[in-house]
Design brief:
41% strand, 1 helix
Length: 202
């Protein structure tokens, strides 16, 4: 992913041990940023960073897989991602030059999702995975200033095979007034547009 200015990229580097590459427990993930020419490579999160965080002079993968997913640039120097630094899973904001980590919405954003910033920077749009008991996926906005949430929809999702599941993958229109999602709540996979209108500014 390009940052807003387009002078750096962020990507996930996934690798595995040669014992059995198809077993997920052997996968290792790193969040990496770099300049467009591949220089100034920075590993913001991953096994080596976690080992350093724990005070270990170790370059080998930790026994437990670190969950790192869905990177998103907030601005030119910050990347938001679902991760578990120090074993604390949540939405974490990484400062690209320094690697400084700040957790976002610890009391509210407790589940991994597919997130994106509203154009005014005040709101974060995200979703949840299928709830095991209710079968619902929730789509909501999180106010980055107040910590409050605004529910948009709760949609039923059948218990499909893993390779056929349908996550919501929400994305905002350029004017911030509509949300595009994937969903299966009417019995077949479709793309939907939801009108959310004007949102209050800070």
């Amino acid at each position: 992913m390009f940052n807003p200015t387009g002078d750096r990229i962020a990507f996930l580097h996934r690798f595995t041990t040669p014992v059995d590459p198809w077993k997920q427990r052997n996968w290792r993930d790193q969040l990496v940023t770099a300049g467009l020419d591949g220089r100034d490579l920075r590993v913001l999160e991953g096994p080596v960073v976690e080992a350093r965080r724990a005070g270990l002079a170790c370059r080998k993968p930790t026994p437990k897989r670190l969950i790192i997913s869905h990177p998103l640039w907030r601005d030119d120097r910050h990347v938001l991602i679902w991760s578990s630094p120090g074993g604390k899973s949540g939405y974490h904001l990484y400062h690209d030059p320094t690697g400084l980590v700040t957790q976002i919405g610890a009391d509210v954003l407790r589940h991994n999702g597919h997130f994106t910033y509203h154009k005014d920077g005040k709101w974060l749009l995200t979703d949840t995975y299928r709830h095991e008991q209710t079968g619902l996926r929730e789509l909501f906005l999180y106010d980055l200033t107040t910590g409050q949430t605004r529910s948009i929809a709760k949609l039923f999702s059948p218990d499909l095979p893993e390779e056929c599941r349908c996550d919501l993958h929400p994305r905002l229109s350029p004017d911030g007034k509509r949300v595009c999602i994937d969903s299966y709540h009417q019995g077949e996979r479709q793309v939907y547009l939801i009108d959310i209108g004007e949102l209050p500014h800070a």
